[in-house]
Write a structure and sequence with these properties.
This protein is an alpha+beta fold and 140 residues long. It is built from four helices and six strands. The protein has a single domain, classed as D-amino Acid Aminotransferase, Chain A, domain 1 (2-Layer Sandwich), CATH 3.30.470. It is globular, with a radius of gyration of 15 Å.
Length: 140
């Protein structure tokens, strides 16, 4: 498989079902002085700078949030997901992947985005648990 190289800033948008409604959490960006956002930068706080909510134009945030919701729905995700993007210098924001089982640690991206939305960690976990057994049966 070959993909186009897109330089840019890694970003992520959390999607969370709250009281039966899908909502997006604030955009979270991470920058590093390393060649790219690699394993070491992901696991060593001193090698990265995180911003949440991201310092981005409202139009970019709105577009990323809308795309995250669309991707969540398109893949049939339920309850919670995290959609990862790159923010290219040109303004493009290609989707890298969706994580339908995002990490739930207190220091993880999802908890960081929830905190930026004034949602305590405990409340985030309650929302995730509220949807744990509400997904309709899979029908191919």
């Amino acid at each position: 498989m070959v993909e186009e190289f897109v330089p840019g800033i890694p970003a992520t948008v959390g999607v969370l079902e709250v009281n039966g409604e899908l909502t997006t959490l604030p955009v979270h960006t991470v920058e590093t002085d390393r060649e790219f956002y690699d394993y070491e930068a992901k696991h060593d706080l001193s090698l990265r700078r995180e911003t949440c909510p991201a310092d981005l134009p409202d139009l970019v945030v709105t577009r990323m949030s809308q795309v995250a919701l669309r991707v969540h729905r398109l893949v049939g995700a339920h309850g919670v997901s995290r959609v990862d993007f790159l923010i290219a210098p040109s303004g493009r924001t290609p989707v890298l992947e969706i994580n339908t089982v995002p990490g739930l640690s207190e220091l993880g991206n999802l908890a960081t985005m929830a905190k930026a939305a004034d949602m305590p960690y405990e409340e985030l976990i309650v929302h995730v648990l509220d949807t744990a057994f509400t997904k309709p049966a899979y029908v191919p």
